[in-house]
Amino acid sequence: MATEETNANNIISFVGGRRPLYVEVMEELERLIKGRKLKPGEKLPSVEALTEILGVSRSTVREALANLETQGLIIRKQGSGTFVSQSSGKGFIGGMERIEPFRMIAKRAGLDSEVIFREVRTVIPDLEIAEQLGIDVDTKLIRVEIVEAIDGVPTMYLVDYLKESCGGEETLSEWEGSVLTYLVERCDPPLNQSRTEIFAVGADEVVASKLEIAEGKPVQYQVDTYLSSSGEILGIGFLHILTDHFHFFVNRRVV
Amino acid sequence: MATEETNANNIISFVGGRRPLYVEVMEELERLIKGRKLKPGEKLPSVEALTEILGVSRSTVREALANLETQGLIIRKQGSGTFVSQSSGKGFIGGMERIEPFRMIAKRAGLDSEVIFREVRTVIPDLEIAEQLGIDVDTKLIRVEIVEAIDGVPTMYLVDYLKESCGGEETLSEWEGSVLTYLVERCDPPLNQSRTEIFAVGADEVVASKLEIAEGKPVQYQVDTYLSSSGEILGIGFLHILTDHFHFFVNRRVV
DNA sequence: AAGTGGTCTAGACCACGGC
DNA sequence: CCGTGGTCTAGACCACTTT
User: Is residue B254 part of a domain?
Assistant: First the structure.
């Protein structure tokens, strides 16, 4: 991380990736926090100190801290310092500002997650989906259907519709990881952002059978629109989540 | 906004408020977008152009644009430009990254909202609430209960518990605006951030009667912890929301 | 090649909190 | 008063998109 060069970015790209410096800083701090080198409530080194330790500019450190705060991992207090968020220690749940595979969130929360149903096939979209994706009704889509369980309890039912530009049915069928990981790592252009709409609904017949619950039981319903960094729509996901054993949170700010 | 001074902040504070320059920039752009001077999908002036038009630095413009993007009002596309978000034109809903009074969100969506029930009283908290607020069980709290309707349909049922440091029962009873506005404008320290946990539940007897729905009907349930900029807990809110006529969205990013 | 947003540096001053 | 995070400027170069 440390360097004597004027612009450290050049060095970083030689070393490993072409990721921004502030992301490297974020990851370094995340490692410290998740590895409990820095405990909940504990004070981080000051911005000034971090610039020296890491050998990067103040802006870069602050960019990293801003993102970590958005994720709820730290809290910055003007005049007194930056602290590891208390809540990151207890029963941790899912922060929504960040796109993350379900099983990653579950893992961080110390819960077991398991894919108990998975099906990939090529389909022709119906009118509504075609409209939302901005495509013709005769354009083929890859449909992915997944049920995930937490501690043995079916908790999330996901149906994704992805454009073929992200790869065909075979590629996705063989993919071991999550759909989100696939979209980020294998798609061109890659997944960069998502717009998620949130509802509370009663489980219909299909959802009830997939999640093994009674019809009409309240579940969180999300419609996720997957976008590339340039705003291109890559796909759309329909999620039903049982919030009994898992739920999301959002950090909100006054503007 | 324009100035020849090295640090424009001094000027700003003389003129009116002590708000950051980038907030002024945000508000200027919001006015243009909401006033339809800039229409959905339309391209904004480039960052470079904005620095000249507004007489502020590149960083300041970018800070403003970053916040507006988080709010879902604009989309930035590397290499091509910044655009007014399409979705801000159609059936607009509530972006969750920002703390906003319910009625403000509704208003922006072009919906009528109306407070159809409101009660303020002083209470002693039960054990659970006292624990979440980090106070003794004999500390008095202000309890605010509100039902809001959208287009005549009861849609949100809110129960807030606020510390007395934010003002007594009388002050709040006479307050015309929303509780959130009160916490931001009249509280010392003021409301700055909130942590919101999201669930889907069935309406219990109380909620059903307040929202005039059947018991067991799925509603979104939120627990909002209100915090000052220094992380001090100001209060806690329990919301039940009917997502039939109104719902939230969240913009999420890959990190 | 030109235009536009993304990242980064270096340095300055302000506002807040605690000593 | 001092340490800390917050805001702001000026200038540089990179990465991506469009012409």
Answer: no
